[in-house]
Amino acid sequence: MVRPRVGFIWSEARRRVLDRQSRIHFAHSDLSGYSIFEEAQYRGVLAAERVLNRL
Fold this sequence. Notes:
The chain contains 2 helices and no strands. It has 55 residues and is mainly alpha-helical. The longest helix is centred in the C-terminal third of the chain and has 18 residues, at 37-54.
């Protein structure tokens, strides 16, 4: 589980992982900086929508 640090939400590393131009779509709650089921479900839906949009 991610341990949020000051600046994580706006960090360059997080921004690169969320890059929509990539062919890899991550669906992990840690991308939100807060690991709970609802965030995992939300990130999964976003990743699925991005994949469907590319098809």
